[in-house]
Amino acid sequence: MFVIILTGIFSASTIRTQLMPDVQLDMISIDVPFPGASPGEVESGVVTRIEEAVRDIEGIADMRSFSNPSSGTVRLDVETGYDALAILDEVKMAVDRISNLPGSIEKPVIYRNQPNPRAINVQIYGDLDEVSMKGLVSTIQDEILSLPSVTKADIQGARPDEISVELEESRLRQYGLSLDDVAKAIRRSSLDLPAGSIRSDSGDILLRTEGQAYRKMDFEKIVLIHESDGTRLTLGDVAKITDGFVEVEFYSIFNGKPSIGISVSAVGDQNQIDISNEVKDYVKKRSQTLPEGISIESWGNSTAYLSESISIMVSNMTMGIVLVLVILGIFLRLQLAFWVMLGMPIAFLGAFALLPLVDGSLNLLSLFGFILVLGIVVDDAIIIGESVQTASERDGHSLDNVIRGAKRVAMPATFGVLTTVVTFIPLLTVPGGFGALPAAIGSVVVLCLLFSIIESKLILPAHLASMKPLPANDHSPLRRFQNRFADGLKYLVEHKYRPLLIKSINARYTTLAVFISMLILATGFVMGPYIKTVFFPSMSTDYIRAQVEMVDGTSPARVVKVVERLNDSLVELNDEQPEDDKFLKNMAAYVFNTNGNVVAELKAVDSLSQSPEQIAANWRERVGELSGVKTIQISGAQKSHGHSKDINFKLISPNIKELEAAAELLHQHLRSYDGVYDIENSNTGSIPEINLKIKPSAEALGLALTDLASQVRAAFYGVEAQRLQRGREEVKVMVRYPREERESMGNLESMYIRTSDGDEVPFTAVAELETRVSPSTIRRTWGKRAIIISADINKTITQPGKIVDDVTLGDFSVQLAQQHPDVRIELGGASQEEEELIQRMVLTTALALFGIYALMAIPLKSYLQPLIIMGVIPFGMIGALIGHIIVGIPFSALSVYGIIALAGVVVNDSIILVDFVNKSVADGMDILEAVIKAGTERFRAIMLTSLTTFFGLLPILTESSLAAQMVIPMAVSLGFGILFATVITLILIPCLYVMLNDIKLTRNALVSGGAKSARS
User: Which domains does the chain have, with CATH numbers?
Assistant: First the structure.
């Protein structure tokens, strides 16, 4: 016992602490930068070749790709049961073997998507130019990374550095230079090069050339032309050199001022709370040394929520323990109740000791696992303790009677706990990103239950044997109360329960019909309007977000105006509230090219007068329709499925026109539903494209298409002269035309093309232009073009499952097949994960039921009696569904897992009851008498296990904080279900036992009747 306690305490003090469990996506990404390429070029030159190289690798469940301007991405989902790291190695080797990728691509980046939970954000903001702000932020980043607990701190909201060398066409022609000539000159003159060593008698002397240019002034001194008379033409003489940032439109503000942020994350086993506390202390000290007008603030502190969650969960756990102790103290001798309750912390500490070995952590859901198992973990000890007390009350307290009482129920109690363990195993096998949530609960429960077996069988009996007999003259208030309660309980059993049980057994078929009717009625609650069903429940958070993507070609100024509109609308909503009802704490807004984001941190949700979802809805209404917006998403809830949208459909076809028409048809169909909003079509439209063609006359000048393409690319995209490392950042040196010479068709038509002889010819003399449009993004699924239609759902109005069924199985599917027969529709995202989860749930539940049957058959020594117990498992849903009506929450996947867990508790109590009947019948008692005796004598133990489970969960059932949202559905199913399960165990199980005997008697009568007929 002391080993368990000491190991558990040590592990609890050192275990990794995080808000939510790690979500292993088992996804491999291949990112390939292809600067200056169109989506079509990326698709044909990069994406298609990578798809063909990796498609036959075993263990890939899904393959999808995205061809965007200047980049391509292929994403591979790893099939459950396969080693993602091994497949990652195979993918790297397959990509390395591709020999025909375009030469202008950058090195493919291949990695496994690994989540790094964010601990805290640091924002630096104020009136400072971009260069100075980024320099200050880089310094702060280095200082944060030097903190003992921090190893990952990424700058957010800053453009990458770039050195731009811009030369006008006229200056290039004046000196007979090309952009490629300038880039070569930079490469020749700007470099550091080791030159070997001199091996002298006194030792080796290293030789080194250091001429790498790092700053603007260094590049200005690079010589382009050196005449024989000593005249030199330097880069600074003909070029505008800017040590600045890449050419992307960018905008970042925090609380209304220009800003750059740093996101600090936990890596591996790091403790988020320790990281957050160190960063907050640093920010407090650093704020005193910043220049005037510059501020630094920590925000988005996920550990504040974690600390609050831990506090709430520990408080609920403490309250649950007290309630369990009170219940035990009422039913049992106080000293015995104490020893029974002691099994709880021992089981918890045992679980803590082993949790790190199963890659567990202390998080919101694992804490709930401890609360969930509060009442269950003492069931085994209650059964042992109650049996010992019964034996002591009947035969007197002695070591022999303690052993006899423990042995009487030891085997069925052990197998009862094992069946409960089996019912929680499905929680450990849930696939997808959602699976990490129930797995965190299941691992804690399973470990606690296994240690409860050790405690109740080896430790508890020793403690019970050490108790002294109760003094005969004990008239203390507590003892008098216990005696009165025991008398009342005895009266309830003998005068209320026993007659009811006899009547139920006598009318056992009617009793079964009543229970079946109740089950049908309860199931109707789900199918009707009384209980809403949501497979993946949404959770309120301390943040609301708006994400907007503008149509391609939108001016940067327009994008900024839209983001400012979003930002100002939310500020106006907040300002209109009374002082006590204001909800904003911090706000950040970002623009990157045509994408914009606004993130608002809210005050503590418990203090808000309206929910985050309602604030988001009001914000959406205030913003209204925005012109030029491709997609917009405003959300005040976190989705438990981990996907950005609630429903997701993939339309697949080789016929592009048919695909686009089908996508538009589905888009309009979804708009017809109430409660469907933020519909997103991945067919993001088209962008204008100019296709260059070389004229036949150009061939006479020695020009080829590759010459034309490379010179136009150099002029408008630029020539990458080199890359240099400055601090943590790799900086490109780009040589190109000035921006004003790259802004129009006229710039292209007026440029000159150099021939192999060095002559210059007008662009229009050797090339012709073909204007066309191309898709701005190309998506593919398993090598075929695809369009994704996705949307969010207001679950108070409609249910995602109903819309999915209508689209895939209803009238729309018929309409789609008739109008667009070449188009196939599949589920994606959360919709696909829901389908896979249901399939896995059915499989694992079936396996769990088989495991339960096998475990019950061992102590009961029967193949039929386990069927009695398993037959009552569905009836446990009645109390669970009624609980959802009482609490007013939707029925979700987590509710189902609560019912599965409930099955284990029902089975646990039922095994004890049936085993008691079997032993009485083996002693020669009549079956009816044995059943009635088992019910009356096991009434106290069954009531105890049910009440301790319910009251252990009661604090979490009444909790309204964010921390409890995820776990309440499971608690409702188990808590309310266990109350009704008590009725099932005490009434229905005895009836079914007698009905099984009826079947045996009927079978024997038929067999004996058949034998008599045969003899006659």
Answer: 25-114 (3.30.70.1430), 168-194+209-238+687-775 (3.30.2090.10), 305-467+485-534+834-1007 (1.20.1640.10), 539-639 (3.30.70.1430)
